[in-house]
TrEMBL record:
Entry protein name: Agmatinase
Region (Disordered) residue spans: 327-367
Top-level taxonomic group: Bacteria
GO MF annotation: an example: agmatinase activity
Listed PANTHER family: ARGINASE/AGMATINASE, GUANIDINO ACID HYDROLASE, MITOCHONDRIAL
Length: 367
């Protein structure tokens, strides 16, 4: 017993049981039916009938599970062992109907409600991004309107796709309209590439979203992004939604709508860790399409993103806001010269344009 609660059941010891033996759950964790309760439930939603380009994300949950075998219990950056200090369990998949969006929305909503009613937080693995709408419905029923931080190359606040109001491009518009979002505390991170129209950005801002564009990441730096993210989210209950295409295709080729110029996996993981201490009540990871993956690159990225989100939720459950270990002194270097060895300007005000002081509607450009 730990603090009057049953000792958590973690994954098997990988030094005694090979990772590829009986590897059918996320991080080789127990199934939900094998433990009395779970602090965090990992659940799959294998649905991709809301995609508008390349299909295949219905196979994402099991691909991410298969790619999660190398995850280990202790997180050295957060000084926490989420997989053994808390009860994390794999709840399997929520049933879906690939031919009926309306029925699937109801099924996902009810499945999420049932899991949330046990006291668990959810780490959901999709599936396409349309699943975020019913998940937000269930979370908002429990917590009230939630702050949302949405990592994606795309806004996903469009109105209609092919005459349909529900698709992977519309979930946050529908959720905002339904009152599930706290419009004063919502944020996109990683938006990049061409838009349909400038009006898309205005409409997005009207729904309550501010934006940290992918094109700004180099200039802001990870600390700058985290600072803006935490300021926007405040002390509200937070829902985190990660579309794997927020990563550059070099780091996540296995997705349905890839966009060049994205975050690196290291950048994304560091920004996610920056939420430690916030009240992240549930999260999703979507749009992993294994048919386009290579050597589990995208699957491993999805598994590690899920692990980081589980760790952030566990940190809040532990009542701590960890401070990452200081970098070794040997890595503190003298600022580089203004030009590279090849004579090209570095990232300075003279080298290339800085972040605009005023950007499109909804931006978080520094004043």
């Amino acid at each position: 017993m730990i603090n009057g609660r049953p000792t958590p059941v973690g994954p098997p010891d990988a030094t005694h049981s090979p990772r590829y033996v009986n590897a059918t759950t996320f991080a080789r964790l127990p199934r939900l039916d094998q433990v009395p309760r779970a602090d965090i439930a990992v659940v799959g939603v294998p649905f991709d009938s809301g995609v508008t380009y390349r299909p295949g994300a219905r196979f994402g949950p099991n691909h991410v599970r298969q790619s999660s075998m190398l995850l280990r219990p202790y997180h050295h950056m957060l000084d926490l062992a989420p997989l053994t200090e808390f009860q994390i369990a794999d709840a399997g998949d929520i049933p879906v109907n690939p031919f009926d969006m309306a029925e699937t929305i109801e099924s996902i909503t009810q499945g999420a409600r049932d899991l949330l009613a046990t006291g668990a937080r959810l780490m959901t693995i999709g599936g396409d991004h349309s699943i975020a709408f019913p998940l937000l419905r269930a979370v908002a029923e429990k917590h009230g309107p939630v702050a949302v931080v949405h990592f994606d190359a795309h806004l996903d606040t469009w109105d209609i796709d092919f005459g349909q109001c529900h698709s992977h491009g519309t979930p946050f518009r529908r959720a905002a309209e339904a009152g599930y979002l706290d419009r004063d505390h919502c944020l996109h991170i990683g938006i990049r590439g061409p838009q349909f129209d400038k009006a898309d950005l205005t409409a997005d801002a009207d729904l309550g979203f501010e934006i940290v564009y992918g094109e700004w990441i180099d200039d802001l730096g990870i600390d700058g992004v985290v600072e803006r993210m935490r300021a926007r989210l405040g002390d509200r209950p937070v829902y985190v939604s990660v579309d794997i295409d927020v990563l550059d295709p070099a780091f996540a080729p296995g997705t349905g709508t890839p966009e060049c110029g994205g975050l690196s996996s290291r950048e994304l993981l560091a920004i996610l860790r920056g939420m430690a201490g916030l009240n992240v009540v549930s999260a999703d990871l979507v749009e992993v399409a294994p048919a386009y993956d290579h050597a589990e690159i995208t699957g491993m990225a999805g598994a590690r993103v899920s692990y980081e989100l589980i760790s952030v939720m566990a940190a809040h459950l532990a009542g701590i806001a960890p401070t990452p270990p200081a970098e070794p002194a040997m890595r503190v270097a003298t600022p580089p010269p203004a030009v590279t060895a090849q004579g090209r300007p570095r990232n300075t005000a003279q080298g290339r344009p800085r972040i605009p002081t005023q950007g499109p509607p909804g931006d978080l450009a520094p004043a």
